[in-house]
Amino acid sequence: MLFVVHGFVLANEQEVSHSASSTYEIELSVTGKLKFPVGSDLRSESLEIVTQPVHAHSNLIYRQKVNPDESELGPTAVRHYEHAVAKVVIGGDCVNTQLPRGVTDIHVCTHEKGLEFWFREGFLTQSEADLLTVAFDPLYLRALVPPSNQACGMQWELNQAVIADLLCIDTIHSGGLKATIKDCTDEGTAVQIQGNIKGAVNGAATSITVEGDYDWTMEDNAAGGVSMLHIVIKESRDVSYMAPGIDIEAVIEMSCRSQKTLRPRVVAASSGGMSKDGRSRRGPGKPGFRWTCDPYDRYDVVYENNWKIIEEGSEYLMMRFVDQGALVGQVTLTPLPLQSKVLTLSDFENDIEQTLGEQFGHLVSASTFSRDDGTTIMRVASVGESEDLPFHWIHYHLRSIEGRRLSLAFVVESRHLARFSEADRQYVEGVDLAPE
Question: Is the same domain home to 213 and 75?
């Protein structure tokens, strides 16, 4: 974030694999404002913006054990969360986020797009993954190691390749971070860090100022020697297709202590995480995917995290597909009422043509197939124009054996079709209508 009674079991060190670990406590406080566009045409040169005040606070406490063997995705760790909560107030609306009950052991790894979080029994939601994402994550703190020939007043530039990871942004266009040794003793080194960066997040320009300090101890713990860190980040980010813009100040307080041995403890038996109505999160989990569940439990989706939730409510869910900061496609999921009459493919084609109206050009393809779980799927692809731009539409109608129905409407600007590739088919594979 940078923005049923459970049983109990007695766990020993071998079962939870948290020996020789480090314990972190991280507090993040954010104040400022969010910038929302008026209307949906972000390409307008005279884009009107409205603002809402935002206040947020999160607290994370976890024990971390780093896997010495790096996976193909990069360094990995298992974090046992004792506490993970966030409260965000936007205008008069308040949202509280925490990990699902019974889910405490989270796997995390680094890769070229940042950090990936998942747990063995299932998948996290987008907001839960955001809760766990904080700038200056411990997996990146070895970038802060001082030079071997330490001396008071010594300065050095941080490796620019890791600054984007430290700040949870996609790209750096200019600027950097500079570290200065303020004090150096046998017990450790006090370091000041500061700098200005211009970059981008999901294609939106951002300007960031960083000021802070940290203590580097001689003990080689999982944080690369960082025992204390205090960072103030001021960021101004433009509105994007994925999220509102921001003008905020974020304060990060982090402490770390090494633990060579842990006593057996009582831990909550994992439920694998459930929706409020008991729908499973469809494990086993794996990196690179998120989970969302309809508020009325009519469907759920396991999806690649290139998809971002834009609007979510009882009537529909809208998500957008981003690739290297570019908006490539969009999907809208609309639950449909139960219906005894079975919709034919011809009827579905006619419905689509009527819905698109003047935007409809011509039909590209139409097909019907069934999945192993009995879900019948109709797929209709068409082309046309909207606002003088050529688009491809891909419509799906899903019907379960019990008669649950769901409409999915994908829209892709024609110039991005090759980039979008098979994203619609992969997304539909993750949709489940069947009740638990």
Answer: yes
Residue span of the structural domain in which 22 resides: 8-268
Q: Which residues contact 223 (CB under 8 A, 6 or more apart)?
A: 22, 24, 138, 141, 256
CATH number reported for the structural domain that contains residue 299 in this entry: 3.40.1000.10
Amino acid, single-letter form, for residue 100? P
Retrieve residue 302's tokens. Answer: 């396991």
**pLDDT of 266 above 90:** no
User: Which has the higher per-residue pLDDT, 153 or 436?
Assistant: 153
Query: Considering the domain boundaries, does residue 211 fall inside one?
Result: yes
**What are the C-alpha distances in Å from 193 to residues 133, 145, 182, 256, 266?**
21, 12, 10, 18, 40
Extract the runs of DSSP E, i.e. beta strands, from 91-161.
93-98, 105-111, 114-118, 155-157
189 in any annotated domain: yes
pLDDT in tens, 129-177: 999 999 999 999 989 999 888 889 999 999 888 999 999 999 999 999 9
- Strand pairing class (171-184; 188-201): antiparallel
Rounded distance, CA 325 to CA 327, Å?
7
49: left (phi over 0), alpha (psi -120 to 50) or beta: beta
Residue whose token pair is 């007043």: 153
- Indicate the number of domains in the chain: 2
